[in-house]
From TrEMBL:
InterPro entries: HD/PDEase_dom, HD_domain, HD_GYP_dom, HDIG_dom. This is HDIG domain-containing protein. SUPFAM superfamilies: HD-domain/PDEase-like. SMART domains: HDc. Residues 140-263 form the HD domain.
Length: 355
């Protein structure tokens, strides 16, 4: 039986509570393992390194004298955070089941997608969740959830109808389902893959298509998006080398969401990039790779959410993003103390860390 988990603020943590997953610092290093019983020292350490909330097991929270659930749960986006963690767990079970030979559970994926699209006013919470530090070994499960949320947002920003919004969310959730058929030692390999390993890794989109099409209740356009989300507009992608006019719209949307989440996450083989670095790469280096209409809708909308972000500059100074430059989203205007630095003008200074 699955133990219930709650997202709880570190300030509300009490000795005796147990962590419901491994806790990592901003660099991806594990500092507390799942099932760790918290003590005063561990709680203080979490607070000192800037971790604001953690998942704990419900029964350990209730067993601690004087702790009330409604008081303990983080009040900022509390219901979203709880549901997000539950959905990630459901996706983990889905992929684990597939890796052991079971069929894809459409009821489980429908429940995740239907809940997500029924809460259209939570973009802020979704983007905050996407930017959280996640444990590297559970990257795939969080990535599926994040790509689903981003795909849904892009579809809405493009003013697509709600039927298409749902298909995009579903395709985003399932785009990497084929990785359940790839050996974990390849998925989690810290170094560069060999040619044969990379060839096998690339087959995840084909495996995903076969898994999804086993159930005729899945929309075929969703299945095609799972198959073709690594195709590129200029025909240099895989598995079929399709050009842009032959890649369906859902796959083009998932491709943008997939690249953004992958580049802003810690991976076993690379450190995460700041969102501003990713904006630069997507805006300047994506010609021939991504659909420009999809990319334009994504960048012009998601960048709004980074106004107010705290960043560290290459000078060592910490400032606040106050304005996004549309011509180069990677170089916003940053307020440092009483000064305003326009990074589009002051080319010698750049953002090196997202705080």
């Amino acid at each position: 039986m699955h133990k219930k988990r709650f997202i709880i603020s570190v300030d509300s943590c009490k000795p005796g509570m147990r962590t419901a997953e491994a806790i990592a610092n901003r660099y991806g290093a594990i500092i507390l393992y799942e099932n760790t019983v918290l003590d005063e020292h561990a709680i203080e350490h979490l607070r000192n390194i800037g971790i604001r909330s953690i998942p704990v097991f419900e029964e350990s929270m209730i067993s601690v004298s004087g702790v009330d659930q409604d008081w303990a749960i983080t009040h900022d986006g509390q219901s979203f955070n709880i549901k997000y963690e539950q959905d990630v767990h459901a996706m983990k079970k889905t992929l684990t089941d597939i890796s052991t030979g079971k069929r894809l559970n459409k009821d489980a994926t429908d429940q995740i997608v239907n809940t997500m699209i029924s809460r259209p006013a939570e973009n802020r919470n979704m983007i905050d969740a996407i930017m959280q530090i996640r444990t590297i070994d559970e990257y795939t499960y969080y990535h599926c959830m994040n790509v689903s949320m981003l795909s849904m947002m892009i579809a809405r920003w493009m003013n697509l109808d709600e039927a298409m919004v749902k298909k995009c969310a579903e395709a985003g959730l399932l785009h990497d389902v084929g990785k359940a058929k790839i050996p974990p030692e390849i998925i989690n390999k810290p170094g560069k893959l060999t040619d044969s390993e990379f060839a096998l890794m690339k087959r995840h989109s084909e495996y995903g298509y076969m898994i999804v099409t086993e159930d005729r209740n899945f929309d075929h356009q969703v299945a095609l998006a799972v198959l073709t989300h690594h195709e590129k507009m200029d025909g240099s992608g895989y598995p079929m080398g399709l050009t842009g006019d032959r890649i369906n719209q859902i796959a083009r949307i998932v491709a943008v969401a997939d690249i953004f989440d992958a580049m802003t996450a810690n991976r076993v083989y690379k450190d995460k990039d700041t969102p501003f670095t990713v904006f630069q790469l997507m805006q300047q280096d994506s010609f021939g790779v991504l659909d420009p209409l999809v990319l334009n809708a994504f960048l012009h909308n998601i960048t709004h959410y980074y106004v107010g972000s705290r960043v560290r500059l290459s000078t060592g100074e910490v400032g606040e993003v106050v304005f996004m430059n549309r011509m180069d989203f990677s170089r916003p205007v940053v307020k440092v103390g009483d000064r305003f630095i326009d990074l589009a003008v002051t080319k010698s200074i750049s953002i090196v860390e997202f705080l």
